[in-house]
Write a structure and sequence with these properties.
- This protein is of the alpha/beta class.
- It has helices at 10-22, 33-42, 59-69; strands at 2-6, 26-30, 47-51, 74-77.
- The chain has a single domain (2-77), classed as Response regulator (Rossmann fold).
- The chain has three helices and four strands, in the order βαβαβαβ.
- The chain has a four-stranded parallel sheet with strand order 2-1-3-4, sandwiched between helices.
- α1 (10-22) links the parallel β1 and β2.
- α2 (33-42) runs parallel beside α3 (59-69).
- The longest helix has 13 residues, at 10-22.
- The radius of gyration is 12 Å and the shape is globular.
- It starts with a strand and ends with a strand.
- The mean pLDDT is 96.
Length: 81
């Protein structure tokens, strides 16, 4: 299973990468919305872990663009209330 993590907090992104990789998942990580959108649209992922507050384009913008072209499952991550 291939997972894309789009998370701007480097430590959290690496924590997710490490944990998922140790459990047999192939994980790609990017730290901003622009790169994340490109990777999600151009790559073949089984799941996207998507932060809401991102530089460049926020997670809702990435999700909107992804939904216009693909049906990849997305799990939103956020610290927002």
């Amino acid at each position: 299973m291939r997972i894309l993590v789009i998370e701007d907090e480097v430590r959290l992104a690496e924590y997710l990468r490490k944990g998922l990789s140790e459990n047999g998942y192939v994980v790609d990580v990017t730290h901003d919305g622009i790169d994340g959108r490109h990777m999600a649209l151009e790559g073949e992922y089984d799941l996207v872990l998507l932060d809401v507050m991102l530089p460049g384009i926020d997670g809702f913008g990435v999700l909107r663009d992804l939904r216009a072209q693909k049906q990849t499952p997305v799990l939103m991550l956020t610290a927002r209330d």
